[in-house]
Structures are given as structure tokens and as C-alpha cells.
Input
Amino acid sequence: MTSNAKTVEEYLASLPEDRREAIAAVRQTILDNLPEGYEEGMQYGMIGYYVPHSIFPAGYHCDPKQPLNFASLGNQKNHMALYLMCVYGNSQVREWFEAEYKKSGKKLDMGKACLRFKKLDDLALNVVGAAIAKVPVEKYVAAYEAVLSTRKAQ
Output
């Protein structure tokens, strides 16, 4: 469910209390581990973490007005979701993430980028934090540009 909230604080205030507490805890884990250069704000109706235009002026290739998304955190109808583009776009990080998640003993409910959870205890927050910390801005932008260059060559 997308939100019309203009700020992260407004978004959090709009959530039911149980989900607000869970989203706030995941948000804090992200902020505690977010490498320098990324910014937090509202993007796509959720809390977004992205490479600002001041670092990557080209923005997201499908909508250059949008900064390049790194991760998003949102409340959905039947679950909460953490969208980890840093895991989706990097097979080495993905393999590491899945192995570490398995070690945590928590059940991984994840699509390509979407990590779904119904309550905070469903998440291996230490693994989420480590995944966020693992991908500095420079590496993320370089990997993104490499993927785009292979698409253009086809």
C-alpha cells in the first residue's frame, strides 16, 4: 500500500501501532548501518533509501527524476516489506545474504528484492543491517551502471 505521506515521520505516524513499532525498528537498523552517501526520504509511497542526484545525477533509468533506489521499507496489506535492491542486483551479496539468513534460524520469505515479514521477530535484523552496510554508494552505482551498459549493448 503506497502512502501519500510527504515525510518519513508522517508515514510512521500513519501506521497502526504494531506495524509502526516494527517499521521503526527496521528503519533504525537501516540507519545504523547505512553507508555514507545514501539518503533517507519518501520514495514510491514508502520510506526510501537512495543515491541522491548530487552523487548520481542520472537518477533511476526508468524515471530519471527519481534518485537511484537502494532499499525501501513499507507497510503492505498483508505484511510489511523491505525491498533490498542491494541484494537483488548483486549475486555475491545475494548468496551471502541467503546463507547468513539461514544461519540465523529465521525463515526467509523473499522474492527477488522483497523481504516480507508479518512481525519484527520474523526478521534477522543483524543480517539485514550487515547487508545494508555491505554495499557502499560507489560500489552500488558502479554495479548499476554495469548492468545498464550490458542492456544497451544488446
